[in-house]
Fold these 2 entries.
Entry 1:
Amino acid sequence: MPYPEITHHGAHQGVTGSCHQVELPAGRSLLVDCGLFQGREGAGRSNAIDFSIEGIAALVVTHVHLDHVGRIPWLLAAGFEGPIICSEPSARLLPLMLEDAFKLMLSRDQATLQRYLALVENRIVALPYDQWFSLPQDLLCKLRLQRAGHVLGAAYVELDIEQPDLPRSTRVVFSGDLGSGRSALLRPPVPPQRADVLVLESTYGDRLHAASGDRTARLQRLIEQALQDQGTILIPSFSLGRTQELLADIETILCDKALNEGGQGAPGVVDWPQLPVILDSPLASRITQAYRDLQPWWNEEAQARAEARKSSLTFPQLITIDSHEQHQRTVNYLASTLRPAIVIAGNGMCSGGRIVNYFKAMLRHPRHNVLFSGYQAKGTPGAVIQAAEGAEGFIGIDLDGERYDMRAGVATLEGYSAHADQAGLMAFVAGIDALPGEVRLVHGEPMAKAALARALRGAHAGLRVVTDH
């Protein structure tokens, strides 16, 4: 069967910059995601659109992480005039993410920002999950969004493309980023019934997540161990997804403590009702409010807990910090008083953001602890700090070009990855009723793609797996 031509404008030779163009029969095309190149992959690269946008009828967004949507300003500047199609939750979250990115990368001028956001919001077409949407008739294509379980609003995309010379349509599926199935808030992804061509992410194609167990119980144990030091727990986190998962688990712990133990912690540990939980990220605060408003898209268990007031991402101890002045006062207060607290702040890789100011002021003191909720990319300050877990004495950490002594404790909590591992990706493929004619691996380092390709070929004799695009 001749398959539609797919051109990859990003995330085909690495992890970031997701952007894929699929040709339609009438000489038109669709763009699936338009993301930034980040980290080492973005070094020295321009964000300008370096491909022709002629004939691109629409942009379909799988989810709103910047490595999937961050080039939208440049796409609009290049003259793209089509709709931006996404799920209903993503329609609420996308302007928040793009506003923050616009202010950081392009302009803080309020009038310019408002014109840009108005343009984005006018282009958004929000679709419900699990319903086919017919594109204009001349495109010979319809599409459907299905839950991907990665972050709220994440979707994988099914394109049903009519082939004039063939007896049936061709089904092209773009996975976007698939969730691990461990979320406290989201439903796990369910594989599509059919895929002639599957464009599949491979971020964790060469690894397996540690056994899940009870993630919340492990978080509670780590918090209580850290609080025995009578200091602050510093948690670097990403604004979208990871922060809300952590808040949901912390809220569950607090509710269970109040019900079962009258709020008392272990001997020598601060009473849980007196423990402030500080969310120090304006973007994370706005996204958390959006998550609350989007409760109908949570999984059934999370909705039941919210209705029972056991978890709704808001609780008396939660303190949100907005302005820079509030942030600096909080840093100074915790550093000077050594009061026990939990601080969640960005950025997640510790390469910038408000968490760095906490580190500068507090890493030197052994009463404090850093708690990582997942992987830290090589070369980042977070990776250096994470590697010090279990070390004795102190080590030197470079932050913003200055050297700081670190005596704080370090621990890593597994179970918060938002990506499917190799087993999850394999299960997604195996769950399709009939194996795809072709699987294209994207969104992964070369070793991860190669490992996943070997595993897929080993499990499914004759399956065509493409890693080089």
Entry 2:
Amino acid sequence: MSLESYIGSLKEKPEHIRKSYAFWSAFGLTMVIFTFWLASFSVFSDNAHEAVAKAVDRAGTPASSLTASVGSFFVDIKDLVFGPKKVKYSSVEVKAGKR
């Protein structure tokens, strides 16, 4: 039975049966999504929690994070307008390679 013929047979059924099918289909899909969501929490090990805790500690306060991001934004804008700093080498040494 194809999906189109199955949907066609559902269209012929009474409204309360169609609503029942719709409800249980939505409920089943929601349960599948909920199961995957719940399982994602068990994926985190202690190492992952420690890594997140370290990242939060390094971030500092929200104000310091915001200040740092605004500062880097202005540096990026300056580099876009005036060009990034160029590195100049005072001497270049060329050595013969092996063949």
